[in-house]
């Protein structure tokens, strides 16, 4: 994008978004006054992700002449929580629970992780059994106190905890606390007073929702992550304050919005899918600029591929998911992630078949063609062999070595007895097949026909695979944003402040909705209180109401958005029972292909999502195409052989331009393959729209 706009930097207010990926750390800066955008990209530093953030911020400021004092918002998408969970690199945590429920975290749901693998089991709990403590107390199923929590019981517990000086955090998970939090609040106050240096996570604060195992698991994960994430945020915030002293500091959460750094340190489990969720938000914004609301995203980075379904401009939300075998029950952008990225390693198994991923060469040493010490064959090496990658990446700051890619892939070709090009194409085909399966998981398996959606490719490698993935799914339209490799960072700038509130309310949907309106009234009051304390700079607000509904007798529910109005006297008014049922039937039909209008329906949770809209400038600048050199034609492998292919520089394209494939579109942050039977046009939003002849 930098090549397409003026280099004159206005010193109005600047917003900066920073996304840390497995291979690169991406930066997007937007001027609030002019809409001017500046981009930057640098290699990630896995040993200390914050180092790449601070170094890159300094480089961005220096490269584009931005006054640090003019940066008023710094939004960060982080992988620290995800990596700590994947690597089990967290705190030594103690769990305090109701007597008799010490082993609930180990028992779980008794669902096998893989049905036909009798040896594979779920990972061991993050808190070993000797650090799971029981206390005499009991809240009943209606919120009544069955067994009181006594001061003597708390004193005995504190004495037991003090015999374990290795403890770094405490998770409090009491039965039915989501209905009555009196015992958890009393216990938390006592433990925080007795252990002022320890971080205490309370299940009613983390997620006050029914289903004990998921609530306990989420709370334990939060406690496990708190020390690591809070230290990271504290260090990074101090350095950002030095580099941009007037910038407010926001952390992106998995549900698709920003939260304050203090809240992220208190609830780090909310950042488990921070970076990928930002990409989905950026994709929804980019699609809206082109008036395309139904999108399936394809975000391919160095380590993984993330796919998400956006319908009517809104990202799909999942209420629970497993990450590395650990159950988390929180609202999260419904992103499906697989180990298929540019750095994914190809290996031949004992059966003689080739597999690609999930192991990745990552940022260090990276693919062999990066010439940074890597020697194993990767997806990027396969693309380099087939001339699908340019000789330089990141605007000329990263030279590729095709000869090293050949040396890495040749042993696979020799063992399989095929040509080098066939081996490279085989690596790409396997990755594409894995991505196609992932997209079917979020579309076909949930009642959506991918052929009715546009595929939006972004990430450093999305454009290399988008055409072949779309063809396999029967899709005909591909959207490539202006800066696809940095869309996650741009999504951070487009994000709003966000908070979610939930109340469990098991009730059948019959007759009036007065009881439900009382619950909604409490949720709206909580939302308004949050807006007054956390969103003082908001430019506007939006409150969205959801009900988790199911047929009576079912064990799992579907979220249904409903219209909630606030009357002149401040009372929350909900639609009638029949309207709510009709909304549930429509959702059920879309997910499962049928519904039963005569069966009784019940509500299990009421949810409220509060959005505080932040200032941003979506106005596009006057477009000035950059000067580019003479068109270059190189042989690129398509199908069964090489074809002469034109190299097109994205910086030289302007709205209204169009061309036909075959072509390779190059830009600072990514490369896009245009197959021979495709056409491309640049629309008024600056997005590249590729049309496939996919009949």
Would you write up a description of this structure?
The structure is a single chain. With 695 residues, the protein is an alpha+beta fold. Among the domains are: 2-84 and 230-274, Nucleotidyltransferase, domain 5, CATH 3.30.420; 90-225, Dna Topoisomerase Vi A Subunit, Chain: A, domain 2 (3-Layer(aba) Sandwich), CATH 3.40.1360; 496-613, 2-Layer Sandwich (Dna Ligase, domain 1), CATH 3.30.1490. The protein is 30% helix and 28% strand. The chain contains 16 helices and 39 strands. The strands form 11 sheets. Strands 13, 14, 15, 20, 25, 26, 35, 38 and 39 form a 9-stranded mixed β-sheet that branches. It has a 6-stranded mixed β-sheet with strand order 3-2-1-4-11-12, with helices on both faces. Strand 38 (678-682) and strand 39 form a beta hairpin. The longest helix is centred in the first third of the chain and has 32 residues, at 212-243. The model is unreliable at 1-9 (pLDDT under 50).
What labels would you give this structure?
Dna Topoisomerase Vi A Subunit, Chain: A, domain 2, Dna Ligase, domain 1, Nucleotidyltransferase, domain 5, alpha+beta, six-stranded mixed beta sheet, disordered N terminus, 16 helices, 39 strands, 695 residues, nine-stranded mixed beta sheet
């Amino acid at each position: 994008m930098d090549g397409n706009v003026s280099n004159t930097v206005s010193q109005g207010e600047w917003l900066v978004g920073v996304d840390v990926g497995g291979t690169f750390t991406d930066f997007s800066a937007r001027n609030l006054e002019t809409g001017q955008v500046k981009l930057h990209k640098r290699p990630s530093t896995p040993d200390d992700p914050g180092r790449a953030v601070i170094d890159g911020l300094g480089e961005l400021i220096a490269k584009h002449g931005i006054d640090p004092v003019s940066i008023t918002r710094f939004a960060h998408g982080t992988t620290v929580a995800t990596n700590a969970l994947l690597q089990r690199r967290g705190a030594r945590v103690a769990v305090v629970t109701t007597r008799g429920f010490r082993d609930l975290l180990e028992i779980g749901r008794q669902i096998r992780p893989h049905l036909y693998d009798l040896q594979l089991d779920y990972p061991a709990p993050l808190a070993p059994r000797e650090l799971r403590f029981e206390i005499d107390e009991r809240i009943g199923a209606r919120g009544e106190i069955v067994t009181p929590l006594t001061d003597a019981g708390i004193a005995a517990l504190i004495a037991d905890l003090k015999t374990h000086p290795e403890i770094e955090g405490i998770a409090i998970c009491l039965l039915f606390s989501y209905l009555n939090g009196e015992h958890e609040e009393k216990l938390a106050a006592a433990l925080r007073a007795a252990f002022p240096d320890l971080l205490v996570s309370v299940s009613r604060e983390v997620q006050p929702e029914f289903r004990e195992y998921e609530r306990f698991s989420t709370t334990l994960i939060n406690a496990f992550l708190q020390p690591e994430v809070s230290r990271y945020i504290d260090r990074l915030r101090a350095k950002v304050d030095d580099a941009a002293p007037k910038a407010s500091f926001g952390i992106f959460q998995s549900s698709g919005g920003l939260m304050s750094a203090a809240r992220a340190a208190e609830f780090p489990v909310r950042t488990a899918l921070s970076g990928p969720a930002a990409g989905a938000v950026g994709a929804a914004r980019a699609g809206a600029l082109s008036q395309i609301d139904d999108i399936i995203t394809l975000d391919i980075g160095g380590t993984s591929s993330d796919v998400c379904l956006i319908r009517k401009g809104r990202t799909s939300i999942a209420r629970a998911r497993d990450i590395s075998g650990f159950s988390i029950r929180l609202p999260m952008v419904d992103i499906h992630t697989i180990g298929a990225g540019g750095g994914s390693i190809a290996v031949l198994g004992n059966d003689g078949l080739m597999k690609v991923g999930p192991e990745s060469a990552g940022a260090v040493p990276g693919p062999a063609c990066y010439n940074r010490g890597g020697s194993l064959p990767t997806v990027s090496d396969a693309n380099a062999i087939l001339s699908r990658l340019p000789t330089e990446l990141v605007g000329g700051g990263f030279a590729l070595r095709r000869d090293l890619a050949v040396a890495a892939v040749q042993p696979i070709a020799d063992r399989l007895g095929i040509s080098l090009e066939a081996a490279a194409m085989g690596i790409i085909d396997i990755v594409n097949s894995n991505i196609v399966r992932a997209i079917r998981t979020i579309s076909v398996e949930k009642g959506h026909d991918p052929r009715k959606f546009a595929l939006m490719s972004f990430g450093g490698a999305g454009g290399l695979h988008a055409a072949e993935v779309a063809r396999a799914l029967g899709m005909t339209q591909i959207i490539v944003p202006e800066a696809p490799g940095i869309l996650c960072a741009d999504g951070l700038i487009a994000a709003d402040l966000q908070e979610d509130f939930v109340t469990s309310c098991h009730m059948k949907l019959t007759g009036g909705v007065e009881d439900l309106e009382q619950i909604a009234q409490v949720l709206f009051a909580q939302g308004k209180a949050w807006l007054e304390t956390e969103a003082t700079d908001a430019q506007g607000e939006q409150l969205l109401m959801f009900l988790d509904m199911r047929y009576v007798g079912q064990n799992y529910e579907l979220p249904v958005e409903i219209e909630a109005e606030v009357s002149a006297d401040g009372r929350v008014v909900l639609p009638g029972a029949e309207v709510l049922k009709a909304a549930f039937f429509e959702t059920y039909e879309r997910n499962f292909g049928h519904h039963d209008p005569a069966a009784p329906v019940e509500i299990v949770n009421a949810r409220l999502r509060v959005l505080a809209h932040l200032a941003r400038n979506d106005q596009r600048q006057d477009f000035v195409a950059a000067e580019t050199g003479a068109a270059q034609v190189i042989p690129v492998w398509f199908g069964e052989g090489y074809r002469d292919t034109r190299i097109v520089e994205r910086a030289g394209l302007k709205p209204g331009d169009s061309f036909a494939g075959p072509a390779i579109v190059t830009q600072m942050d990514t490369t896009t393959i245009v197959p021979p039977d495709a056409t491309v046009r640049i629309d008024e939003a600056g997005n590249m729209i590729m049309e496939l002849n996919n009949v």
